[in-house]
Every structure is written in C-alpha cells, then in structure tokens.
C-alpha cells in the first residue's frame, strides 16, 4: 500500500535513552542516584537481565556470560533485514553503571572511553567490527524486498511452545551461498540437526558466540561442521554454505 521496503525500518537493541548494551546484560534495575532526583527519574521497564549479579563483578563465569549475551544481541541485529542502528560505545562495552537517564552528565558516564576501546580491540571490538563487515559483504542481509517463502526456511515445528527459547532458520541465496542461523537462549546445550547445504557445498562456521576470540568469528569460515551442532547455552551461531 505505502511501498515501504525493509530498509525503511530502523532496527536497534539500544538507543540513546535507557541502558547501554553492557548495562542491559549487567543490571536488572536502574541506578540513577547520581542524577539528583532520588532515583525517581528514568524508565523502570528496562527488559534487562544481569546474568546473575547486579552490577560490576569479578566472577569470571558471569563476565563470560555477559560477553556472550552482548555478542548474541549484536549478531541478531546485524542479520536482520532493515537498517541497523547502534549506540556509540557498545562496540567496546561502555557502561553507565546502570544509569538509564544520563543526559545531564559530562563525565565518563557519557564520554567515549578511547582507552577501553583500545583494550577491547582484539576481542569484543573485533567481534563487533567483523560482524558488521560480514553483513555488508553478504546480500542476503540487505534485500530490496521483504522475505518471501523462497527466501527463508524456518527450522521450527513447535511455535506454540512458550517454553522454547531456541530459534533457527536458513536465509537462501540464489547462488547457493545460504546462511544458517541458530539462537539458543536456554541454560542448557541444544544439539541441532543441520539442514543439508546446497548441492556441492558444505557448512562453514563463521560465528559461534560461545568461543573465545578470534574463534568467535572467522569471516572466511572454519571447515569441519558435520550434520549436527551442539549449541552452547546462551549462544548463537552463523554458518555459511561454501
């Protein structure tokens, strides 16, 4: 009716208001005391999960889970049809320490932390950067028209199960360079049966957010993926047919 296209939509996980991406996975509640309004300002509905501890922690398992969650969110955003929008600072994990209404601060809460970016250059920042490059180089993520039945296959037969926290689908490329994606939000492993790749091709692992850098994203793809994949808790994968 209105001739809208996928690229007319703006997709985002995080915007200028609310939590940063790091705070989304580190805080269940707003912490706005520094704003001088008694904590009464800012939204109370943050749709966040602190991964088991509120705020900063030295617990290695919680920190690893938060890292995976940020990578999961970023991957989901970058494989979505439409125009992606990121919040500056999320590429290195900027924190406002749970402040979701920080407009009045000219401090480290809002200022870009170049030193933190430098320390994350070969890990968190590398993943975010490489996923963006991968999106830009694969046309299946930037279609001119909305997906039709021939463009995507959903590997799901239990849509009405509200306890299910697993989702997988294949984006089809006319030249056989299909992309398989799976997201496991369960707290347990899910062993999935992979669909057959297109003729004369095999699946290469590009992304597994559970792996440490630089294995979490291998732009050229890592060979050796079989007919099944054991997907870790709170993780996601991207496979490419080559």
From TrEMBL:
Pfam families given in the database record: ISOA1-3_C
Residue ranges of every copy of the Isoamylase 1-3-like C-terminal domain listed in the record: 156-220
Transmembrane segments: none
Signal peptide coordinates: none
Top-level taxonomic group: Eukaryota
Protein species of origin: Citrus sinensis
Name of the protein: Isoamylase 1-3-like C-terminal domain-containing protein
């Amino acid at each position: 009716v209105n001739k809208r296209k996928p690229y007319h939509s703006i997709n985002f996980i995080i915007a200028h208001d609310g939590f940063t991406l790091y705070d989304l996975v580190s805080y269940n509640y707003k912490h706005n005391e520094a704003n001088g309004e008694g904590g009464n300002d800012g939204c109370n509905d943050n749709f966040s999960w602190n991964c088991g501890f509120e705020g900063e922690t030295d617990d290695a398992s919680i920190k690893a889970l938060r890292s995976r969650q940020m990578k999961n969110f970023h991957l989901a955003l970058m494989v979505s049809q439409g125009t992606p929008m990121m919040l500056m600072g999320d590429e290195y994990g900027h924190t406002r320490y749970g402040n979701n209404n920080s407009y009045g601060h000219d401090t480290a809460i809002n200022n870009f932390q170049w030193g933190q970016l430098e320390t994350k250059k070969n890990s968190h920042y590398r993943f975010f950067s490489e996923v963006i490059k991968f999106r830009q180089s694969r046309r299946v993520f930037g279609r001119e028209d909305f997906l039709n039945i021939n463009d995507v296959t959903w590997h799901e037969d239990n849509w009405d199960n509200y306890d299910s926290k697993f989702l997988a689908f294949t984006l089809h490329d006319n030249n056989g360079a299909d992309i398989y994606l799976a997201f496991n939000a369960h707290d347990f492993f899910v062993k999935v049966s992979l669909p057959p790749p297109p003729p004369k091709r095999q699946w290469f692992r590009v992304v597994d957010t559970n792996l440490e850098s630089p294995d979490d994203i291998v732009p050229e793809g890592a060979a050796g993926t079989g007919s099944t994949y054991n997907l870790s808790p709170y993780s996601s994968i991207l496979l490419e047919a080559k």
